[in-house]
Amino acid sequence: MSDVIEFRKVGAVGVITINNPPANALSFAVVKGLAEHTTACMNDELCDAVVVTGAGKMFVAGADIREFNMTRPDDVPEFHDLMKVIEEGSKPIVAAVNGIAFGGGLELAMGCHYRIIAPGALVGQPEVKLGIIPGAGGTQRLPRLAGVETALDMIVGGDPVRAEEAVELGIADELAGEDLLARAVAYALERVADGPRPTGGITSRLGAVDPQYFEEYRLKIAARTRGQEAPLECINAVEVAATKPFEEGLAHERDVFVRLRDGDKSKAMRHMFFAEREVAKIPGITKQTPVQKIEKAAVIGSGTMGGGIAMNFANAGIAVNLVDVSDEALTEGLQKIRGNYAGSVSRGRLTQEKMDERMALISSTTSYSDLADTDIVIEAVFEDMDLKKKIFGELDAACKPETILASNTSSLDINEIGAATSRPDKVCGAHFFSPANVMKLMENVRTAAASDETIATLMKLSKTLGKTGVLVGVGDGFVGNRMLHVAARIAEFMVEEGALPWEVDQVIYDFGFPMGPFSMNDLAGIDVRYSIRQEQLKLYGDRRQSVILDRVYETGRYGQKTNGGWYTYEGGSRNGTPEPIIEDIIVKTSAELGFQRRPFSNEEILERYVYALINTGAKVLEEGLALRASDIDVIWHYGYGFPRYRGGPMFYADLVGLDKIYDKVSQFHEDYGDWMKPSNLLKSLAGEGKGFADYVVSS
Ligand code: T1G
């Protein structure tokens, strides 16, 4: 029948094994094979019961996400029809759940009559993280097995539960011992006398639920699911399970599943699912590329960034030596780290024991001679090329030959830094994002001289630290900040021309970002942006910068740190309010600059900001500073909060259409000059009617 399904008889029990690596996804072939083998067993007089299990380490990771955009072949049942064949089977069907049963995997197990689960296995309905709801009966069967409240938590949250808890919750009937399959076969035979137990017929757990409960649940999740549809639809589907007949619930689920699956938000979130896995695929680097062990690390600079970076190593169980020029600086840096951990302990996110373990992994020194045996050093001092070259020269002399030397610089030329050492093949960039112990993104910077081993080690280190490491090339601002600086400038120019900071921020917030550029400026510090611009003016004198930011800086309003920047922050609140002083400065400066202020529509604000991002992303691609467009999407999601349900700037551009974006950017080019010149890649792809998804960087 099908090579992704194996079948054998164990006595009077038919054992159906799904063998569809790498994740045993419910592909069309698997669905077809499952239906055929189930039907065959039901018609086999010598078969008294059936066991369904997965080959390898997973039961089933879910439906095959890659097939969502494909047309289902006529001879392949819909998910619901497969579950109907199983649930209405005339003989007991037992799911032997090994490893992972997610999405359609858990739904398959719940379509079976009984479930035996292996210790340590995980079951979950993560569909909401793909912008959809379970589409194979999960919203209707899980409430029947585990009750409405548990079903809501699992389906709306999307997080898995462990085997032991699955038994307690009623999702699984029994926790297997050493031999899952043997136990499942025996259990199936024990159930022959009882016969099938269709999950759809279980109603005892549904109990009368107060409609208010669902309303309160909707309010509870509203803030964190802003802009998304799937979470609310998950609640609606579970409410239908609790209030309507089973068949009606299945029909409701199917209609909503198809609508969300075919919508842009789910396509964007599925794009991100694969994009964040694609970043690990680097031309020339394979599983055979040697990787250096990282058991001892050091961080140069005990400031905010250095301390955060050091915490990442301690959190991963790696000993780390914090280095600075004085004991006072180190004392202050360690105190800040201790305070960060204590905050997590007080919020119940970390145990005191774990905090103590991590603090014990962090040592400190003012002497490079203590770094001789270090495996990797991350330099995180302030952005001064001469200082960095001096530090790298000293590290080169102090550390063993194989030590990797990485800079956390956000924009300086790491090729030049590497040239200050005798080991340029061991020099790279590890650009963390602030706060470094929280933000998942690492821009791993590949210099011209870095060896494959150095890059492979750096990419593996990202995973070890629980980060999403994206490989980028050496360029001003690498990828993320290069794009940010262009968009931030265009936002400032819009304010010169007539928009107000809070108008721009509202549009960008409503698009789905956690905050707009001016709020972000207040958070990071206007003084920080001011100094970056001074650096850029040195590097690129030709680039006109809006002087409004200078005027605000000159008032001493640096943002949240001074309780006022673009916004005013009453009583230390983090929610700013528009400030009339700022509006006066803006209007006055616009007049000085000769602008006749004009209103900006929300659409124009969004287009200018986001298309500036996209155009710069296209330039990054054509300069070979990113391996693929989807890497840029991953950078912008994990580094800057680009909403996952929009898929990242480059995916979003393909949805809008590159021809439209090219036309708009051409207009910006006329308005602002060459720094907004359309990218050649954008122009050529638009002209060919293609998208960034069609563009493969020559490796
Ligand atoms: N479909 C297609 N490919 C998948 C897949 C899936 N569901 N899950 C994993 N892969 C691929 C993945 O792209 C990678 O490929 C390889 O398997 C290893 O994955 C009807 C409609 C299971 C926890 O959302 O969470 O069911 O890069 O690197 O770290 O209601 O994969 O090697 O070519 O992630 O060990 C719901 C998605 C689907 C779970 C394993 N299920 N998967 O993590 O390996 S929708 C999910 C995961 C659904 C039903 C609905 C993880 C994992 P490649 P990996 P891992």
What do you see in this structure?
- This protein has an 8-stranded mixed β-sheet with strand order 12-11-10-13-14-15-16-17, sandwiched between helices. It has a 6-stranded mixed β-sheet with strand order 1-2-3-4-6-9, with helices on both faces. The protein has a 3-stranded mixed β-sheet with strand order 5-7-8.
- The chain is globular and about 85 Å long.
- It is α/β, with parallel strands linked by helices.
- The chain contains 28 helices and 19 strands.
- It folds into 3 domains: 5-262, Alpha-Beta Complex (2-enoyl-CoA Hydratase, Chain A, domain 1); 296-474, Rossmann fold; 481-694, N-(1-d-carboxylethyl)-l-norvaline Dehydrogenase, domain 2, CATH 1.10.1040.
- The longest helix has 21 residues, at 602-622.
- 48% of the residues lie in helices and 12% in strands.
- (2S,3S)-3-hydroxy-2-methylbutanoyl-COA (T1G) binds at residues 22-23, 25, 61-66, 79, 100, 102-104, 107, 126-127, 130, 134-136, 138, 274, 277.
CATH class of the largest domain: Alpha Beta
CATH topology of the largest domain: 2-enoyl-CoA Hydratase, Chain A, domain 1
Fraction in beta strands: 5-15%
Averaged pLDDT? 95
Largest sheet: 8 strands, mixed
Count of domain modules: 3
Count of helical stretches: 28
Percent helix: 40-55%
CATH superfamily of the largest domain: 2-enoyl-CoA Hydratase, Chain A, domain 1
Count all strands and give the number: 19
- The poorly predicted ranges are none
Task: Tell me what the CATH architecture of the largest domain is.
Answer: Alpha-Beta Complex
Structural class: alpha/beta
State Rg.
Answer: 28 Å
The strand line-up of the biggest sheet is: 12-11-10-13-14-15-16-17
What molecules are bound to this protein?
Answer: (2S,3S)-3-hydroxy-2-methylbutanoyl-COA
Q: Gap between N and C termini, in Å?
A: 41 Å
